[in-house]
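Notes taken during the Thursday session

The instructor put the following on the board and asked us to keep it in front of us for the whole hour. The protein is Phosphoribosyltransferase. We were told not to look anything up and to reason only from what is written here. First, the residues (171 in total):
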Amino acid sequence: MSRDDERENLTYALFGQAVRELAQAVADDSYEPDIVLSIARGGLFVAGGLGYALDVKNLHVMNVEFYTGVGQTLDMPVMLPPVPNVVDLSRKKVLIADDVADTGRTLKLVQDFCAEHVAEVRSAVIYEKPQSVVKCEYVWKRTDRWINFPWSVLPPVRRSGEPVTPSKEAL
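Then, after some discussion, the predicted structure tokens were revealed:
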């Protein structure tokens, strides 16, 4: 089996289809979220697409750090500032959006944060892995493979903290 056979390869075109199908699943379930809560960074793309498809303009972001590299994680996921104001979430129906529920620990942290403050919370992800501690209400595809997302498969144009140098095309 080649390395590509061992991975899910999500393209931008397929991502667009996945988000529409996720949104349709939410709509078919008659769930009408007041807020789409994105888990940054991968969930930003999912939340934006769901927000448009479900006609939800109230989007919030939570920054959570867990993965530090391929297969490398912190001991526990950590919320990074700014943390959403719980008053903004109070008594609202919230749809948490992320790209993948791998271990599910990040999603659990966000769900637990929301649980005491919101009317209802559900989760939507592109991919869910079998070992996830959270079983999401809305999943486009289940897999146990590593996923190549179109936004993270290529290396950064410039690494954070590096000096800015113009590209050859800009000269």
